[in-house]
Structure formats: C-alpha cells, structure tokens
Design a protein that fits this description.
The chain is globular and about 70 Å long. The protein is of the alpha/beta class. The longest helix has 19 residues.
C-alpha cells in the first residue's frame, strides 16, 4: 500500500497514520555513543540498519553481542527478539560470563546460507514483532545466482571445458534487491539490523594509498546503512606478568565513516582498549581519551607506563581505570568526557547564519 494519500486536487499528501517513535539503544561504550549520535546513552535507534566492517579480530562480533546485551538492560527493548544469525559460526565465547542476561534471551537459529534466505528471514521476523537482528557476517553468505554459476562451472570442469563466468556481481544484485524489501519494514516495526562485513585489501592502485581497506557486496550496503562503523586493530596491550612482557589485549580503532543520524560535526574516530579476559574497556577508554585530548596530563608515554594525575591519584591508565571503578567514580568520569566532547563539538561548528532559518 502506498505511504501517500491523494487529496481532491490530486496532490500527494503524507500518510496521516502516526509513525511509531524510534527507541534509543546504547552500544555500551560512551565514546561510540557520542561518535554515533552525540548523546551519552544513545548509539542506535530503531528503524535503521547499521554496518560493522573490519579485519579479523577487530572487535566487530563483540560489539554486536554487547549491543544485544545492552538491550537486555533496557526496559524499552524487553519485548524485542534478540536474534543472532551467525553463518561464520565464529562466536564461541561464554555468553553468560561476558554478557549476563543475553545468554537467556538470545536466539540463534540455523544460520542463513544464502543472501535471499537472510533477507526473507529479516522481513519475516520484523513483521512478527520488534527485532534486533545481527548478521555475522554477510561475507559468509552465498546467493542463489552465484550457486547456479558455480554449479555450472563445476560440471564444465568435469567435462574438461571452461565454464565461463561473470565478474561476481551476483551478491551485489542480491543485496540491492534484499535491502529494498527489508529497509522500510525496519522502520514500520521498530526493529534494528546490524550487519557485519569483512574488510578486504583495496587493490585499486588509484585509491589504495588513501583507503587501504574496502569491502565486497556492492554499494547497496553502504547506501542503505544509516551509520557505518569501521574497525581496525592498531596496537597491543602488554603487561609484565611473572617477570615477562605478555600481550593481554589490543587497542581497537573504531571510525564512523557515514552518519545519517548523529548530531555531530565530523566523522569521529575513537580508540577503545580490548582485553581478552574482559572485552571492551569502557572506563579505560575514557581515561585514555581525556589524556589524548590533553584534559589530563600524562608523564611519559601513555602505553609505556606513563603516569596520569587525576582525581587525587597518580597511576598508569589501566590502574587509573581500575581505581575509578572501585571508588564508584565512573559517572563522574563520563560527565567529564561528555563536557569536553560538547566543547569540541561547539568549537567545531561553522559560525555562520543558516540560510533558510
């Protein structure tokens, strides 16, 4: 049915049916929320599609599951189905240990095999009721046209002849057609779609110097996504344990490349520590960010035992984060970050008169 009605003069008018207000969901990370929407506790809004793109072991799956865990803590999402479609079959962590209530609410169906099956499943789920649908990952899906082409090629090889082929555009066409069907349904049914994509090396000699990573699957994925996050591992976290330096985590860089929703002045890039025994370090990321923005000073190198003086303490960044948590000062820390963030946003605005106001 059309979303417009016609008045007596034949003009198109907006459908008078009231639209359901979107619901806000946190990512569980203050810096990611601010980078996405400019708001402390809001990273995602219902009615939209989001993409997480990055190389292996860059935190994409963890942030997806963490977002589903945040939905378990948010009363507005108590009726949402939390569905994790994992054709990669790569999330083997202990849900109960790391994500609490998610272990009881998460639904893991038999993973989708084809793009067509995936989009049909999204459409069916959101029509049945509000859903947060996570796909991990789109690259593991085949499409029906691709499967037919490969089947013909296999038969041709068996006969000792060439099977011909294409330039691999079947997946792009499947995504374009699939998004057109599901995109409107997300908004109508207060649902969220989060799609994980694998980054690939950009071999285009004209653009690879400026953008070393790219992705497959066509342009529809980026076109329909309201926000795109790109993940990259940029360093190791090493500690001296039993007299030896050992790697206990990584520094993950998360960049907002496209943003239709956020009230922000730039495409932000933030760095979040990730510990193998903890996951993303919310408090540690805020301590590091305040040092990077020179709100707090650090004597020495931040990642090489540098000491930070703040809140009446002098500690390395990880120890500072530990003590802030122990003393119940996390909210005070967040407020300090938000205050500084808004100062930066305000200073970044162009002080000019808006033409149409």
């Amino acid at each position: 049915m059309s979303t417009y009605v016609t008045n007596t003069k034949g003009r198109l008018l907006a459908d008078p049916t009231p639209k359901k207000p979107s619901k806000a969901l946190s990512s569980g990370l203050t810096l990611i929320n601010l980078a996405m929407t400019g708001e402390l506790g809001v990273g995602f809004r219902t009615g939209h599609c989001y993409t997480f793109t990055g190389r292996a072991s860059s935190g994409k799956t963890w942030l997806l599951l963490q977002t589903l865990a945040e939905a378990c803590l948010n009363k507005r999402f108590r009726k949402h189905v939390l569905l994790y479609d994992a054709p990669e079959r790569g999330a083997l962590m202990d849900y109960k240990r790391y994500f609490g209530q998610l272990s009881e609410r998460i639904e893991e169906p038999e993973p989708s095999v084809t793009s067509e099956q995936f989009y049909a499943r999204v459409l069916k789920m959101v029509k049945l009721g509000p859903t947060i649908y996570g796909l991990d990952s789109e690259d593991a899906l085949q499409c029906e046209a691709e499967m037919k082409r490969l089947g013909k090629a296999d038969k041709a090889r068996d006969k000792g002849t060439s099977g011909g082929g294409s330039f691999g555009t079947e997946k792009a066409k499947a995504n374009s057609a699939g998004f057109r069907r599901t995109f409107v349904a997300l908004s109508k049914h207060n649902s969220i779609l989060i799609m994980i994509k694998q980054a690939r090396q950009n071999i285009n000699p004209l653009t690879s110097k400026f953008k070393p990573d790219t992705r497959s699957g066509g342009t529809a994925i980026g076109f329909f996504a309201s926000i795109e996050l790109w993940f990259k591992k940029v360093g190791k976290i090493r500690k001296t344990i039993l007299k030896r330096k050992r790697t206990v985590g990584s520094l993950m860089q998360i960049r907002v490349e496209k943003n239709r929703l956020g009230n922000v002045t730039e495409d932000h890039t933030v760095t979040i520590p990730f510990f193998r025994s903890l996951g993303f370090d919310e408090v540690g990321s805020l301590v590091r960010w305040l040092c990077e923005e020179e709100v707090w000073s650090c004597k020495g190198k931040l990642d090489d035992g540098g000491k930070i003086a703040a809140f009446g303490m002098t500690e390395t960044w990880d120890k500072m984060a530990e003590k802030i948590e122990a003393k119940g000062m996390t909210d005070k820390l967040r407020n300090l970050v938000v205050e500084r963030w808004r100062e930066i946003e305000e200073a970044s605005k162009v002080k000019r008169r808006v033409r149409y106001v």
